[in-house]
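Archive entry: two folds, one per protein. Generate the first.
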Amino acid sequence: MKSVIPVELPNQSYEIAIAPGGLDFLGTWMQGLGLGQRVLLVSNPPIFEHYGERAIASLTQAGFVVSPCLLPEGEQHKNLASIQQIYDAALAHHLERSSCMVALGGGVIGDMTGFAAATWLRGLAFVQVPTSLLAMVDASVGGKTGVNHPQGKNLIGAFHQPRLVVIDPDVLNTLPEREFRAGMAEVIKYGIIWDADLFEQLDAAPRVDQLQALSPELLQTILTRSCQAKAEVVSQDEKEAGVRALLNYGHTIGHAIESLTGYSLVNHGEAVAVGMVAAGAIALTHNLWDETANTRQTQLIEKAGLPTQIPSAVRVDDILPVLQSDKKVKDGKVRFVLPTKIGAATITSQVEMTTLRPLLQTLVAS
C-alpha cells in the first residue's frame, strides 16, 4: 500500500511517498522529476551495505548514472569536513546543475546531503530516502539542511527542499532498537504539539519501544500522521518565521545536552525526550498546562524506552550559556516551545534563566 502526502509550498511543492518495498521504485518515481542523468548517492558504510545495491539498481534501471559517496557514520562527523567529501565526489563525478544528489541514510546523511546540494553549483536537486524512524518522520521532510559547529548543533545550514521523499517502512527491520526509540521521541513530539489523536493512539498501545511491538496498522499511522503533521506545519511556514518553530519542541534543551556530551553519550532522540520533559516541567511552573497532562507525557516517553533525566555528566551551569547560542534566540532571549495541552503548544520568550536553573537541577540524574 502506497500513501502519498503532498508538501504544498509556494515555489516547489513535493511528495512524500510511503510504501513497503518503495526503495525498489526509487528510480521510477524520480523519472518524473525532470532531472539529469547523473546522480550522486550519499550514504554511510553500514546503510550502504544493507541497501546501497538495491538503490543503485533501481536508479540504473530507470536510466540514471549513479556514483556512490560514503561518509563516516555518526553525528560527530556532521561537519564541514564531511561536506568537503561530498563536494570532492561531486567534482570527481562531473555533476552538473541538472544532476541530483540522493541521501540514503538517517538524519545526519540527509542533513549533510541537503546542505551540499544547496551549495554545490549554487543549488542541485536532491531526494531523501530516509532509513531511520527519526529521519522518516522528521529530518527528511521540510528542507532544513546543515551541519554542526563545535559550539552548537546545526548552526551552519540552509533551507533547501527535497524534490521527493521516499519512505520504505521495510528498511526499519535493520534499524537498531536504540535508534528506533530515538525516532519515537519525534513521533511523541507531534502528538504533544499538533495531533492529540496520535498521542492517544500511542498512549493506548501496549508497547511503543520496539518495532516488533507495533502492529502494521500502528506503524503506518505513526509514519503517515507524523509526516502529515510536519507537512502541514511546513506548508504554513516554510522558513520558520512563525508556527514552524513549534517543531523545535524539546530541541532547545535537547540540543544543549547533545552538544555538551559531544554527540556521543546520548543520541538526538534521547536528548529531545529529556528536552520535552524539561519543557513540560517549565510549562507546569508557568501554569500553561496541568499536572495530569505533564504526567501523561512523561509516562509515554518512559513507555517508549526513552530517558527522562538530564545525564549526570552534564552540569546545569553549562547548559545555560549553550542556550544563549541557540538558533532560536531572539533579541537576546531564548525562545522556548511549551505545551498548553495534549495536541497544542505555544512559543514564548518569557522564561527567565534565573528560574530555569533550579528547575533543571531537579531533572539531573543522581
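Generate the second and append.
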Amino acid sequence: MASSKTKTPAARATYRCSECGWTTAKWVGRCGECQTWGSVSEVGAVAIRTQPATYVERPAVPIGDVDGRRAEARSTGVGEFDRVLGGGLVAGAVVLVAGEPGIGKSTLLLDVAAQVAQAGGTVLYVSGEESAAQVRVRAERIGALADRLYLASETDLATLLAQVEAIGPDLLVVDSVQTISSSEVDGSAGNVSQVREVAATVIAAAKRQDMATLLVGHVTKDGSIAGPRVLEHLVDVVVQFEGERHSRLRLVRAVKNRYGPTDEVGCFDLSDVGIVGLADPSGLFLTSRDTEVPGTCVTVTLEGRRPLVTEVQALLDKTSASNPRRTTNGVDHNRAAMVLAVLGKHARLPVQEADAYLATVGGVRLSEPAADLAVAIAIASSLAGTPVPSGTVAFGEVGLAGEVRACTGLQRRLMEAARLGFRRAIVPAGAAAQGRLPDGIQVLEVTDVARAIAIAARLGPG
C-alpha cells in the first residue's frame, strides 16, 4: 500500500532587487531587470545573526592590570631550540614543527619533552604514528626517559582531549596533526576538514588550560606544510626543520613567531644516539687537511643572525662538448650559472670550455648572494691550478657588470672569521666605513670580481 505521506519541497530562498522589485531564486551581483549593481538581497534575511552573550566569563580589564608574566618564555632545556623560539615556550602557545619524514622532528621533540619533564613539568606525548612501546625504545636510545613524561598512542581527537583532561600537562606534543581525526567530521585523517578541526580544537584546549603545545606537521613534495594554509595562521609559531638525509646537520628556523624573532637559526647534529645542539657549528663546514689544494675558497654566510664559516669547492675540467655541464650541490644553481657567465665576460676566464662542478662542505646550502665572491674565486683557483692560501675568506655579491656589491652583516662576518683564526678577508669596497674592523684580520677591499681574483692569486704561492 502506497504511503499517504507526501514530501514537501524545501523552501527556496528568494532574492529581490530593492530598486525595481525584480526577483530571482539565487543571489546575483547585478539586477537582471534594471542592471543596478549591489541591489539584490535576500527577502526576509536577518541582518544580524549572532546576538550578544548574556554573560561574559572573562570580562575585559585595563591593559595595565593584565599579568604579563603569563606570557614569559620558559626554557625547554634545549638551547638551540630556545634560540629559535625566542627564549623558550610560552604557556598556551601552539608551535607547529614542520619537516620532511625522517629528518628528526620526532627525535628533537622527544628530547624537548624529556628535558621539560626532568625540570619538573608534566608532559603528555601523543603519537599517532607509533605505538607507545616504539616511542619508549627511541626515548631509551637517546636518553630521554623521565618520570613525568607520559606517552599515549592515539588517533582519535576525543580520546586525546580526554587524556589531556586526565593528566593536565604543562606541555602537549602531538605527533603528528595529520594522523589525528575526529568522528564528528567526515573524511579520513589528514584531509583538509580533519586537519582544520584537529588543529582548532587542540589550539582551543591549549589556550583554555595555558598548556604549551607542539604540533608535528608533514610537508608536501615542494616543501610546504601539508594541509590547509589556514593551519599556519592559527598557530603562534611555525618552525621549519631542514637538512639533507645524507648529512648529520639539521637546521631549525622560525618561519612565523609571535613571541620572538624570525631570523634566528638553530643548528643540530643528528646521530644514532640522538640530536645535539651545536652552539658553534662552523667546524662542520670546513675540510680538515694539511695541504692547500686549488679550487677551494672559504666564505662566511649568515643563517638568520648567525654567521657560519663555509667552504666552497669548485672543479672545472676541460670538455669538448658544445654544452658544458653545470652541476651544483649546496650552491644555488642559477647564481652559479650567473657567476660563471660573469667570469667569462668580465674576467676573461675560459669557463665555456670546461665542465663546472660546485659543492659545499658539510651539507650546508648557500642561498644568499654574499657567497658569490667565494664561488668566483674558487672557480678561478680551479682553472689556474693555484690554491687560495689558508687563512683567507671572501664574501660579497657579484653583479652582472662584474662589480662586487656590499652585503649585510659585514661586521659579524669579519668577527666570526677573526674568531676562527682567519688572517685575510677579501670583501666589497667600503668595509672600513661601516665601523671598526676586528683586530687580527687584514681586510682587502675590491670593487670588481677581476681584481678579487687577482688579489687571491697574488696571495698564493708564486
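Annotation attached to the second fold: The chain is about 25% helix and 25% strand. Residues 73 and 87 are 6 Å apart (CA to CA).
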